[in-house]
Each structure stands twice: as structure tokens, then as C-alpha cells.
Automatic annotation (TrEMBL):
Entry EC number(s): 3.4.13.22
Pfam families: Peptidase_M15
Keywords carried by this UniProt record: Cell wall biogenesis/degradation, Dipeptidase, Hydrolase, Metal-binding, Metalloprotease, Protease, Zinc
Function noted in UniProt: Catalyzes hydrolysis of the D-alanyl-D-alanine dipeptide.
Active site: 189
Protein species of origin: Streptomyces ossamyceticus
Protein name, UniProt field: D-alanyl-D-alanine dipeptidase
Family: Belongs to the peptidase M15D family.
Length: 219
């Protein structure tokens, strides 16, 4: 697989943020997008994204072959939850690899979870999603959404070579629609796509991020 810039890379942190002030909008109102409740919170924050990201997601959904839908598992994530997730995964890796230096531990943690201060989900700029049929049946993508490198033997990487042809084809369908709509993928997670965040800016050559940390105000 080609070299991957991780979220922990200093290049990502150096990208300036000029928040454009777009609101968070509810993805459950989009056509051809199914919001799965597996990571739902009481306030429904998980089902929201910045308006510009949601608009592009709706465009991607219309680009899919007939009979397919985008199945969203999580959009916006509060900062406190990002911190909790990041620290829990770091602790898991530390326990399994007690000799790892802290900087290397942070780097390896960022394969699956962004450092909280970078967090595309915290900005309402990232979405975790997969493909499903019109009746809600999930397609084979090679791993479950949110599978870690350890539990998937690195099959969570978007370009992982050791997945089935069916899964590889489904990943191509997902990628084609989202890329055409302007989103970028985090290559360690086939399901993670974003627009307007620092990682997107670095990958596309934009002068800065459009979205910084967002606050969810509830329904």
C-alpha cells in the first residue's frame, strides 16, 4: 500500500482553520441516505453534519447505482466523546505494546481515531458510512465499520489487498460516488470520509480548513 499520512502527522495540525460558520444539519432528512441507529445518542447529534458536507453526501447518494443507499453510522461527534474514544484505544494499544514510546503510541492510535484536537468528526466534517440495499441489507465491504487494524488484520485499510473481489468492488462503488461529490477518504478506514476539515485541506491542497470544532445545540 502507498505511504499514508496519518491524522497525527504534524502536517495536518499545521493546516489553518477558518471556520465558515455553517450549521449542523440532520442527515435523516436526506434522500437515499439511511441513518443507522447503532451509534445513536439521546440528542441525535450523531446524525448531523455541517451543511456543506451533508449537501455533498446527498449528491454522492444520487450517484450510486440503482437500488443502493448510503448507510451512515456516525457523523458529528462531541469533543468529550472523541477524547474518550482516543484515550480508550490508546490504553488498549499501550497494554498490548508496553515498549512503545508515547509518540509512536499516539501515531498508531491515530490509525483508527483522530487526535481530539484534529478530529474531523468533532468539526461535523466527517462521516462514517457503508453501502446498503433499498431494503437496508448491508453490502460486503470486507470488514465491519469501525474495525481496528488489529482485529481486521489491516483489512480496514481502504486499499487492503487481502479482501474478496466482491468487497473490493463495493469499496470502489462507495469511493467513486463520494470522491466525485468532493469528499476525501482516510486510507486506514474505508468507511471514513470528510470534507472541509484539516485532513481534507491537506489532501486537496486547499489553503485551510472550512470547519473547526462544532457545538451541537440539540433538536
Amino acid at each position: 500500500m502507498p505511504s499514508i499520512i496519518l491524522m497525527s502527522d504534524p502536517e495536518v495540525a499545521r493546516v489553518p482553520v477558518r471556520d465558515c460558520g455553517e450549521p449542523l444539519v440532520d442527515l435523516r432528512e436526506l434522500p437515499f441516505v439511511v441513518v443507522d441507529p447503532r451509534q445513536a445518542d439521546a440528542a441525535g447529534a450523531f446524525a448531523h453534519l455541517r451543511e456543506g458536507v451533508a449537501w455533498r453526501l446527498a449528491r454522492a447518494a444520487r450517484l450510486l447505482p440503482d437500488g443502493l443507499r448510503l448507510l451512515v453510522t456516525e457523523g458529528y461527534r462531541p469533543l468529550a466523546l472523541q477524547i474518550e474514544y482516543f484515550e480508550a484505544y490508546a490504553a488498549e494499544l499501550r497494554l498490548a505494546n508496553p515498549d512503545w514510546p508515547e509518540e509512536y503510541l499516539r501515531e498508531q492510535t491515530s490509525r483508527s481515531l483522530s487526535p481530539p484536537e484534529i478530529g474531523p468528526h468533532v468539526a461535523g466534517a466527517a462521516v462514517d458510512l457503508t453501502l446498503c440495499t433499498a431494503t437496508g441489507e448491508e453490502l460486503d465491504m470486507g470488514t465491519a465499520v469501525d474495525a481496528s487494524p488489529e482485529e481486521s488484520d489491516d483489512a480496514c485499510y481502504t486499499d487492503a489487498p487481502h479482501i474478496s473481489e466482491a468487497a473490493r468492488g463495493n469499496r470502489r462503488i462507495l469511493s467513486a460516488a463520494l470522491t466525485t461529490a468532493g469528499l476525501v477518504n482516510y486510507p486506514t478506514e474505508w468507511w471514513h470520509w470528510s470534507y472541509g476539515d484539516r485532513y481534507w485541506a491537506l489532501m486537496t491542497g486547499a489553503p485551510g480548513a472550512l470547519y473547526g470544532p462544532a457545538e451541537f445545540g440539540g433538536p
